[in-house]
Amino acid sequence: MMGLNLKIAGKVIQMIFVGLVLWTAASAWAQEKITISYSALSPSVVSLWIPHEEGFFKKYGLNAEIILIESGSLTSQALAAGEIGIAHNAGAPAIIANASGSGETIIMGLINGLEYSLVGTAKVKGMEDLKGKRIGVSRIGSSSHAAVAIALDHFKMDPSRDKITFIQAGTMTTRVASLRAGSIDATVVDPSFVPFLTREGFKELGYLGEMGIPYEHEVLVSTRSYLKQHRDQALKAVKAVTEGIAFTAQDRNAAEVKRVLSKYLKFDAAKTEDAYKAVKGYAIRDRKPYPTIEGVNALIRFFARYNQAVAKITYANVIDSTLVEELDKSGFIDALYKQAEGK
C-alpha cells in the first residue's frame, strides 16, 4: 500500500511539473517580442526604463527588449532595416530619415519643447559672450546642433557673422568632458546636468525650455511599414510608456523613480535628485504625449537649410498621432490619473 501511494504521489508531482512547464511556455508565448532602443544615456529615457522595471510592457502583453544604440542616425538606420520596431530618439533624426524615404514617423511627443540648457565655461558670462566661441554639439546636423542653432536664431545671433564655431564633440557625456578639458567653450546638456556642472564652476547661460521656442525634443518613433504590420503591438508599447509617464508624475513613486534613474545612470544621490526633478517636470507637462506640429515644423525649417529633401516634406509626412489619440479618446490616459488620485 505504501509503495502504491508513493507511485501515485510521484505521478501527481510529475503532472504538476509538466503543467508548470506548459503554463510557463504558454505565458512566454503570449508575450509578443519587441525590441525598443534608446539613443543616449540621459535621464529622460526613464520613460522607457520605468515601464520596463515596473512590468508595464508585460502588463500589456509585450516581451520588450530595451537596448542602447548610442546614435540618433544609427537608430534611424536600425528602424529602416527592421532590426528594431520602436525607438526613443531625438526628433531631428526622424525628420532627416523621413526625408530620405525611410517612412520613419513620430508616434509620441515625449518632450515637446527645447529641453536643453546651454552651459559654458566661467569665462562665458552670457549669450553675447558666445561670439567668437566654440560650441560643442554631437555632430553637424544632429539634434544638439539644431537646438543650438534655433536658440541662436532666437537671440538674433548668426554663426557666420558672429564667428561662432560648431565643434563635433559627440554624446552629452563626451561634450561635458570636452567642456571640462577646455576644448569647447559651451554646449547644450539635459537640464538635470546643470546643478552638478554649476557646482564645478561652469555657467548656465540659459534654460532654453523657458523661452517658448517650438521644438520636438524627444520622441517615440517607428516606421509606417512597421505600424502597418504591427499596429496592435505599437499601441501596447504606447500604452506602457504612457503609464510610465503617469507613474513618474506621481509624488508617491519618487523613491522608485530615483532608484531606476540611479540604476541606469550610475549617478550619486545628489545627481539622481537633480535628474528626478527634471524627469518629473517632463512627465507633468506631457501628460498626454501628442507630438506637436509646431515642434516638427521648426526642425523641418532648420534642416531644409542644409538638405533639399527635407524642404519637400511637411509635418503630415512625419507625424502619426493616431495611437495617442486612440488612448486619449478611449479615456485610457485620464483613467491613469484618476486611479492615481483615488477618484
How would you describe this protein?
Helix content is 52%, strand content 16%. It has helices spanning 2-30, 46-53, 56-59, 72-80, 91-99, 143-154, 172-181, 194-199, 224-249, 254-265, 269-285, 293-304, 308-311, 315-318, 322-330, 332-340, and strands at 32-38, 62-68, 86-90, 104-111, 117-120, 134-137, 165-168, 186-189, 203-207, 218-223. The longest helix is centred in the N-terminal third of the chain and has 29 residues, at 2-30. The protein folds into two domains: 32-113 and 215-340, D-Maltodextrin-Binding Protein, domain 2; 117-211, Periplasmic binding protein-like II (D-Maltodextrin-Binding Protein, domain 2), CATH 3.40.190. The chain is α/β, with parallel strands linked by helices. Helix 9 crosses helix 11, helix 9 (224-249) runs parallel beside helix 16 and helix 10 packs across helix 11 (269-285). Strands 2-1-3-10-4 form a five-stranded mixed beta sheet, with helices on both faces. Strands 7-6-8-5-9 form a five-stranded mixed beta sheet, with helices on both faces. The model is unreliable at 18-29 (pLDDT under 50). The chain is built from 16 helices and ten strands.
